[in-house]
Amino acid sequence: MKIGLIDCDRTEFPNIALMKLSAWHKSKNDHVEMYDPMFTGHCDIVYMSKVFSFSEEPNYCIDSDKIVKGGTGYCISLIDEKEVFDKSKNINLPDEIENIFPDYSIYKITDTAYGFMSRGCPRGCSFCHVKDKEGLCSYKVSDLNSFWNGQKFIELMDPNTLACKEWKDILQQLIDSKSYVNFNQGVDIRLLTTEKLEYLRKVKIKHIHFAWDNYNDKEMIVPKFEELKKVTGWNRGKVSVYVLCNFETTIEQDLERIYFLRSLNFQPYVMLYDKEHLIKGHILKKMQRWCNNKFIFWSCDTFDKYLDKN
To answer: Maximum Cα–Cα distance for the chain, whole Å?
Structure first.
């Protein structure tokens, strides 16, 4: 068969489901390629996948006997102006495809491995779809060798590694790999203990992202970040912190978190809740631009100064 693949998101990250589908079809001696309306021609099956609900499908005609659409982006519906995950639309890959080693060649990736070692999160935050898609328990789903075979870099995409009861096994595998690891989702700083921190320090970390979503957790979170800084000495070159703004917070509370993280020489990264409904030029969008542009942020130490110049 001839198989076409379409990544609707078109981000810097490859679509893991498409890489696994490619690997499985190639194991059946099918021809697989990224779909191009100008050159691909007729396909037996075209798979379209997206992670984000706002990603648009291509506007060209697809020449295929069958089109299969899947991914979190297709499972999110807008109800009363709020995003709701629709479980009835969720399509899980069959186990034989889910557990196959991904085909990195479709993205021309040679030195980086992408994957999940655990799924789920016990937090159940109302702004997050992980609870609906993966459940309220963090559980191990694979060993590192299910998507890594010696690559120099590893992109770990687990939603809450430290909440998994097998966190020690996961981190030990990352330590043993001796590869540079990017924890690209928001590691739960609230779950950081002395023992977990010691394991993290042994990982060859390229970058680690923490998350500070709830302002009201500051009494717990502030000492955790201070301890992280004291023990590791890490700075913004290694530590970023996702800061959820516009979700049950004032701009003053948002800036309080941003300034605190700046004082530790960590890189805050503003995530705007319900960004699509904020009008152009909204002050929160200006704050996001100031904070998320590293050159601007570290050359302009307060948001007020940035506003004065802009």
So the answer is: 62
Q: Does the pTM of the predicted model rise above 0.90?
A: yes
Query: Please, what's the b/e burial string for 126-162 (b: 16 or more CB within 10 A of its CB; e: otherwise)?
Result: eebbbbbbbeeebebbeebebbbeebebbbbbbbbbb
**142: CB partners within 8 A, 6+ apart:** 99, 115, 116, 117
Helix (H, G, I), strand (E, B) or coil at 26: helix
* pLDDT tens by residue, 34-78: 999 999 999 999 999 999 888 999 999 999 999 999 999 999 876
Contact 161, 167 (CB under 8 A): yes
Instruction: Report the sign of the C-alpha dihedral through residues 25, 27, 29, 34, in that order.
Output: positive
Whether residue 129 contacts residue 85, with contact meaning beta carbons closer than 8 Å, is answered with yes
Cβ atoms of 23 and 106 closer than 8 Å = no
Dihedral (C-alpha) 32, 38, 41, 47: value to the nearest 10 degrees?
Answer: 50
How far apart, in Å, are the Cα atoms of 160 and each of 29, 117, 126, 168, 209? 37, 10, 16, 13, 11
Q: What are phi and psi of 46, to 5 degrees?
A: -120, 125
**From CA 242, how far away is CA 63, in angstroms rounded?**
41
Question: Phi and psi dihedrals of 307, rounded to 5?
Answer: -65, -35
